[in-house]
Amino acid sequence: MKIRQQPATPEAVATQLRLLGELLSRLRLARRARQADTAARAGIARSTASRIEKGDPAVAIGQVLRYLDAIAPGKTLMQLLGEEDPAVSALAVTEKRHRARLLSETALKELDF
Predict the structure, then answer these.
(1) CB of 52 within 8 A of CB of 62?
(2) What residue numbers bound the domain in which 94 lies?
(3) Is 28 within the bounds of a domain?
(4) Among the four 1, 45, 49, 102, which has the fewest Cβ within 10 Å?
(5) pLDDT tens digits for range 71-107
């Protein structure tokens, strides 16, 4: 019988798990890998991969480490937490919102119909 571990998990630990899941998710997205493909490479179910990325406290640490290795072979958990991956930095740049600027008089006249 599966026991929900949410109530037993302190809020500080739950927050850390969500952040870890978010880091893994962003790393996967930055490397343009599908969740199902990465889960298959790690030898876990896609539903488990989803739970890892959501920060579920019931997921075994071994599964988390296998998932990380499937996303970024050779990268350790300490490296994930301690440094910024170049692929994640590139993803952040593309996601950055650009400020809308006022158009010049010439540009406004070109758009006027």
Answers:
(1) no
(2) 11-111
(3) yes
(4) 1
(5) 999 888 888 887 777 777 777 777 777 666 777 788 7
Report how many domains make up the chain. 1
pTM: 0.72
Buried b (16+ CB within 10 A) or exposed e, 6-41: eeebeeeeeeebeebbebbbbbbbbeebebeebbee
End-to-end CA distance of the chain: give it in Å, rounded. Answer: 67
Structure tokens at 49: 């991969």
Is the Cβ–Cβ distance between 39 and 67 less than 8 Å? yes
Q: Is 33 helix (H, G, I), strand (E, B) or coil?
A: coil
CATH code for the domain in which residue 60 is found: 1.10.260.40
Which residue is it, tokens 């075994």? 60
Please give the share of the chain, as a percent, with pLDDT higher than 70. Answer: 88
With respect to residue 5, please indicate whether it lies within any of the assigned structural domains: no
